[in-house]
Amino acid sequence: MDLAELEEVLAEASLLVEPDEAERLLVSRVAERLLESCRERFLKKGGVLDVSIEGSVAKDTWVRGRGEVDVFIHFSKETGRDVLESTVLNLGREVIEGMGGRSWLRYASHPYIEGEVDGVRVNIVGCFKVTHGRWMSPVDRTPFHTAFVKSKLTSELRRETRLFKGFLIGNGLYGAEIKTEGFSGYLSELLVIRHDGFVNLLRSASEWKLPVFIDLTEAVKRDEALRLFPNAPIIFTDPVDPSRNVAAAVSLTKLAELMLAAKLFIESPSLDYFKPPSRERRDLAEVDLGSRCLLGVLFRVEKPSPPDIFWGEIKHTMRGISRRLEKEGFHVYRSAAAQSGEETLMVFELSSLRLPEAELRVGPPVWTGNALDFVRKSLRRGDRISGPWVDGERLYALLRRRAQDADELLKEWIKGRQVAVSSQLLDSLRKAEILTSEKGLVERLDGREEFIMFLEEFLDGVSTPIKHFREAE
Amino acid sequence: MDLAELEEVLAEASLLVEPDEAERLLVSRVAERLLESCRERFLKKGGVLDVSIEGSVAKDTWVRGRGEVDVFIHFSKETGRDVLESTVLNLGREVIEGMGGRSWLRYASHPYIEGEVDGVRVNIVGCFKVTHGRWMSPVDRTPFHTAFVKSKLTSELRRETRLFKGFLIGNGLYGAEIKTEGFSGYLSELLVIRHDGFVNLLRSASEWKLPVFIDLTEAVKRDEALRLFPNAPIIFTDPVDPSRNVAAAVSLTKLAELMLAAKLFIESPSLDYFKPPSRERRDLAEVDLGSRCLLGVLFRVEKPSPPDIFWGEIKHTMRGISRRLEKEGFHVYRSAAAQSGEETLMVFELSSLRLPEAELRVGPPVWTGNALDFVRKSLRRGDRISGPWVDGERLYALLRRRAQDADELLKEWIKGRQVAVSSQLLDSLRKAEILTSEKGLVERLDGREEFIMFLEEFLDGVSTPIKHFREAE
User: Fold this and answer.
1) Choosing among B209, B386, B399, B460, which should be mutated to test the A contact, i.e. which has the most A CBs within 10 A?
2) Are residues B256 and A466, on separate chains, in Cβ contact within 8 Å?
3) How large is the average pLDDT for residues A238-243?
4) How far is B279 from chain A (nearest CA, A)?
5) How far apart are CA A18 and CA A163, in angstroms?
6) Distance from CA of B329 to the nearest CA of A (A)
């Protein structure tokens, strides 16, 4: 790594991620007005003890163009959850609308109000005012997170945090929501603090071995953490609550992508890594399927669940379909999904869209009680091709398949509930169009620009950090 | 099981397996003459201490039509192996030819003379006369085996032994040679002795669990035997030498076939189990390939190794080819081989004779030193279809295959020594015809009746005991 080159890239990247004066002014003005207005409305209510600004605006770590004001309403521990919720929803809405903004309902661990004021995203969230450690709801930790991070960040580390967040955004790794399964803002800040800067963090990440264990407080030892979180690919114990893994939402793939992105960036630093990969407007005619074997599921969900729940359903369903396909004898290379309006498209790339006519039926070991039964039934089957025979301790037979095509089989499985799909999506999936690259998948997407772009990217199949590397090299 | 029915079947089976008076007379006359003649020739030689009849004729346990006279020449321990061998080969040949018979050389653990006198198969084998346990060559145990079995067999158990051997023959399970990997004569006798009869033995075998441990002397405990023979599916400790497993040659498949045969016979007893399955003369036109995917390797070996070594080479080569095919992405359902004159045919049934154009290349985990290298090289490859991408901790890419057809690939692998085949067969395999069911495999076998019959049986794919069951039901 050429240090001068690196410094130049980082200087340019800072320009991309640091909010300018106008943005700072706008965001802080919205924050102050919102805080003031919330104090006026909420503090009058019984049970409300305090109102505060939290999140990246409080910590001054937001990335340019992504300023988002989080106001927390602190309720007394005695307040009922239903009272907390209805108070936040009703008064929150009034506050935002009173400021001339728009607002809508969102769900995380509990309902909160999201809105927009003067073009700035705002959130109004209710929490219980508890002493450290006596959490009553998950967001009760947030004020402690804010305080901890503020106590550790210098203005230099704020710049470094923004670089890291920008790097995560540019590589599709930012955000703990289920669609992304990446790195939350708080986790990003802790990582930068722990490694004392962006470049040190990337150097470290490029050499991580799995599972990754990181700690700031030494409250929990590595061995104990691995026992507490046995399947986590990365563990960062929360300095505010050591029994909690701040990185719990990070998937193995996203962790590996960060590790690879760090390696690639160090190998050839480039500003590209801080920008979303270039997406060009595509025409249907440009989609080259070659000899690809794609199975597509296109369906409409009129009243989808909130995004985090919806993407959980999508991922659960895709896993179920992949497993069923593999069990039947297909080989699933990759899968991905995209949403556009009310429509969702799931795509699976297979080694083949058609199974061989003959299917190997694995029978019981000869010493089991049903060996005789398998022999007798196999001999009588109309779809017997050959066998039964003995190989090792087991019986086998070769049978003729009823259906061989992936699309036909998937239709049957959904109809007959023989595939594990999300129950919330079942009705939509029953009406889904099951398409293949051989039978009109691409043609069906004509005019749906987002799906065409998604398909082009899927066909290229290059992970985002590698796309940057390809452009930078 | 209907006992009367069973008794009737066993009575009929006895007629099949018991030698008649004429055969007994012929065999015993040949045995006496051969013993006399060997005594005359060998006992004059220095170092020869004794001459004896061993094997199934000595034990009176041979199956009708299979009388085989084994004469053992006992040499003193001081005799050199080369002297023993040359004496047996030279004098043995003279003895047989002096009796008007034909003779030829055979190899087991060491060379011996096989021949035919008056239509009866004879063997002349040299062993060292040792005290119990001080074995110098593997056949030194044989006289002790003979003595042990003779001491245990009653005339009733001789009848039962012949039934069991006939049952094994009828199910293709008799013989410890590599081609069969089944049950030796000695093992059959011990099994009948241990279970005090044929039906008891079958009842027991139908309930065996793996691994099977059987013992007559209680010299070795089950746990110790499992430690001594960790991978053996069946252990029968030799009463003459408890450190030896009499059943060492029995493969898991053949053991399982006996267990299944026992179950099937008990379920519906029939004389069929004591006869070789019916084989009809077949025409090429009768071979129905349906949609079967067969890969055939037809080759000529002009000077094959002795049968046991040759079949070891064939099996080793078939395992090597199967593994290579599986590694490449083919699925091998079954394989088998047949020999006819100088020609050998190996057949593999695959799920498909052609691989998909796209091949998934599994790259290294992202945390390894060569992850960067994989990324760089994959991006530059002319055969790249898509990727590289990250999934879990690993990198993957989709590449275009150069060759997709099983026959073309196998030709290349043999040429480039990229498949583990027996080195003794390599030259023959290089000149082999690699055929498929799509490209003239069956047509090429026109006029080779044995291969056509073999192929018909392979296509039916029913294990021999199940064939009997199918006919009996």
Assistant:
1) B386
2) no
3) 92
4) 17
5) 8
6) 10
CA–CA distance from B340 to each of A15, B299, B389 (Å)? 81, 11, 52
Residues of chain A found within 8 Å of residue B333, distances taken between Cβ atoms: 358, 360, 396, 398
CA distances from B398 to A260, A291, A333, A350, B282 (A): 19, 12, 8, 11, 46
- Co-location of B349 and B372 in the same domain: no
For residue A390, which of B403, B210, B54 has the smallest C-alpha distance? Answer: B210
Q: Is the dihedral of CA B368, B373, B379, B382 positive or negative?
A: negative
* A195 and A269 inside one domain: yes
The distance of Cα A41 from the centroid of its chain, to the nearest Å, equals 35
Pick A469's closest partner by Cβ from B291, B375, B391. B375
Q: What is the CATH number of the domain that holds B299?
A: 3.30.70.590
**By the 8 A CB rule, do B69 and B123 touch?**
yes
Nearest-CA distance from A278 to chain B in Å? Answer: 17
Same domain, A144 and A168: no
Number of domains comprising chain B: 4
Which among B352, B391, B394 has CB closest to A356?
Answer: B352
Identify the domain containing residue B126 by its residue range.
Answer: 19-140
- Tell me what pLDDT residue A109 has: 65
Model pTM score: 0.80
**Is B410 found in the same domain as B307?**
yes
- Please answer yes or no on whether B387 and A462 come within 8 Å at the CB atom: yes
| Most B CBs within 10 Å, among A389, A455, A456, A464, to test the B interface | A389
How does residue B218 score in pLDDT terms, banded at 50, 70 and 90? confident
Q: Could you tell me the pLDDT band of residue B449, with boundaries at 50, 70 and 90? A: confident
Residues B259, A367: C-beta atoms closer than 8 Å: yes
Q: What is the pLDDT of residue B1?
A: 61
Q: Per the domain annotation, does A157 fall within a domain? A: yes
**Interface A:B, Cβ pairs < 8 A:** 160
Nearest to B388 among A367, A375, A462 (CB): A462
**Structure tokens, A231:** 């399947």
Percent of chain A with pLDDT over 70: 98
Say yes or no: B242 and B211 in one domain.
Answer: yes
The nearest alpha carbon in chain A to B256 belongs to A393
**Cα dihedral angle (B82, B87, B89, B91), rounded to 10 degrees?**
170
- Mutation target among A260, A376, A455 for the B interface, most CBs of B within 10 A: A260
Indicate whether A145 and A236 sit together in one domain.
no
CA distance B264 to chain A (A): 7
Same domain, A25 and A87: yes
User: Are residues A395 and A374 in contact, defined by beta-carbon separation less than 8 angstroms?
Assistant: yes
In this structure, the answer to whether residues B134 and B182 fall within a common structural domain is no
Please identify, among A149, A177, A211, the residue that sits at the C-terminal boundary of a domain: A149
Given pLDDT bands bounded at 50, 70 and 90, which one contains residue B298? Answer: very high
Q: Which of A366, A372, A460 sits opposite B267 (nearest CB)?
A: A372
CB atoms under 10 Å from CB of A296, counted, come to: 23
Please answer whether residues B151 and B144 qualify as being in contact, where contact means their C-beta atoms are separated by less than 8 angstroms.
Answer: no
The strand order across the sheet containing B102-107 reads B48-54, B68-75, B120-128, B111-117, B102-107
Residue contact A392–B210, C-beta within 8 A: no
Look at residue A103 in the predicted model and tell me its pLDDT.
87
